[in-house]
Amino acid sequence: GTRPGEGERPGLWLVGDEGVYIMSNGKLAEGLRPLVVYAEQCHPKGDGDWWDYERRHFGADDGIEFIEAERLIPLFDRNMRATHLNVQLTETEIVLSLITR
User: Fold this and answer.
1) Which of 42, 63, 61 is nearest to 53 (CA)?
2) Is residue 3 part of a domain?
């Protein structure tokens, strides 16, 4: 789940690095790069305050949080018209919800 080659389970990685983004943990063909979807408030090329936002909401250190596909699929199945995934982090949990805009 949290690293390639370890406990291969389908899902997403929530990554705090240069910005905050989600990406699939699925294997790609050699030479391909994963699709990366940045948080609206935390894209290093689109928001001048991205570093402060990342530090405040994700933490000062880089990191990865694994989100299991089995948590996501029922959420998406209930709202096929959703346009945004809302991710809220607390000290102990990741809360997921969908938004339709």
Assistant:
1) 42
2) no
**CA 17, CA 60: separation in Å to the nearest integer?**
9
pTM for this one? 0.77
Q: Per-residue pLDDT for the chain (101 aa), expressed as one digit of tens each?
A: 556 666 678 899 999 888 889 999 888 889 999 899 998 888 888 878 888 888 887 877 788 888 999 988 898 888 888 888 888 888 788 889 999 98
What are the strands, taking DSSP E only, across 8-79? 11-17, 19-24, 37-38, 63-68
Range of the domain at 47: 11-99
**CB-based contact 58:89 (threshold 8 Å):** yes
User: How many separate domains does the chain show?
Assistant: 1
- CA 99, CA 35: separation in Å to the nearest integer? 21
